């Protein structure tokens, strides 16, 4: 039995975890982020990186419900999280932080990477480069980044359009397809933006089919069940929905109405690694793929990676580009190999080490007080 003994949260100064420097100008820096550390009586700890707002909410809740967590066995993860969710109404965002930390600590205690404990299926997964559209001003900026990613070994690239109009988005897709050739896998994600009505979404989808795109992600709002259902029936390209779903039950309406071809999920919305595994199982029950989001700091990427490595019904790992934008504060980061794959971490737990000296130097507040 390994007991939880303490929780510390380090709030970092702005920009300490990520920033974008692309071309000549620094275009973006994060707001406050932080690191949480859960210690145990076996001298192992679990840690995770999240937004400062999320971690401050965690600290406030923990101060009130400390007795549910302190002295609990880390292997009683499901019981701890269920009690906090049902009895004390903890949000999925803070439960996901606790869940990742517990899995990290469990893996370190048992000396296994998390994906092995989840039921390891593979040792590597193909990655796609996932761009940040608001760091790119012109179509040529997007094209340049796509070409750079291909040269670095990526076999797949996902476009986030700048949301000027659906016609401009189509121009962007055509330009990138022409630039990278037919051998690169392309995905398109307008992430439910309001400038796509149902008619525009179908028009864009048909052009994406002509351009041989692999999937079409969040072309309409998640709650437009009828529109999404009609889109799935009208198009051959794979429709991918679910990134904005915040509970397991939210997927049932999508599935029952055939309003998506594959499921998408995010740990911070759905409740962590444990909940992502439930989405994978739900997708498998309906012979569907599950393609988790994995955009964010390295440990957030890693949390999603472990679920992908432990399931067969997933094709890709999402890796943020430009390179290195979320790598600050880490001694180890996630990279592709020369074939475009991300390989499984070998170290226990989440498998990627935080630079604690860096955290110490950039901490502006320690919680709970």
Salient structural properties:
Enolase-like, domain 1, 9-stranded mixed beta sheet, 369 residues, TIM Barrel, 4-stranded antiparallel beta sheet, alpha/beta, 2 domains
Question: What's a concise summary of this model?
Answer:
It is globular and about 60 Å long. It has helices at residues 52-64, 66-69, 77-86, 92-110, 114-119, 139-152, 166-180, 198-210, 225-234, 250-256, 267-270, 273-285, 298-309, 356-362; strands at 4-12, 19-22, 25-29, 33-40, 45-51, 124-131, 156-159, 185-188, 215-217, 238-241, 262-263, 289-290, 317-321, 341-343, 363-367.
Relative strand content: 15-25%
Q: What is the CA-based Rg, rounded? A: 20 Å
Count of separate DSSP helical elements? 14
CATH architecture of the largest domain: Alpha-Beta Barrel
The CATH homology group name of the largest domain: Enolase-like C-terminal domain
Mean pLDDT, as a whole number? Answer: 94
Major sheet: 9 strands, mixed
User: Kindly, what is the distance between the CA atoms of the first and last residues, rounded to a whole number of angstroms?
Assistant: 28 Å
> What is the chains' assembly state?
single chain
Report on this model:
There is one protein chain. With 369 residues, this protein is α/β, with parallel strands linked by helices. It folds into 2 domains: 4-112 and 356-367, Enolase-like, N-terminal domain (Enolase-like, domain 1); 116-343, TIM Barrel. It has 14 helices and 15 strands. It has helices at residues 52-64, 66-69, 77-86, 92-110, 114-119, 139-152, 166-180, 198-210, 225-234, 250-256, 267-270, 273-285, 298-309, 356-362; strands spanning 4-12, 19-22, 25-29, 33-40, 45-51, 124-131, 156-159, 185-188, 215-217, 238-241, 262-263, 289-290, 317-321, 341-343, 363-367. Strands 6, 7, 8, 9, 10, 11, 12, 13 and 14 form a 9-stranded mixed beta sheet that branches. The mean pLDDT is 94.
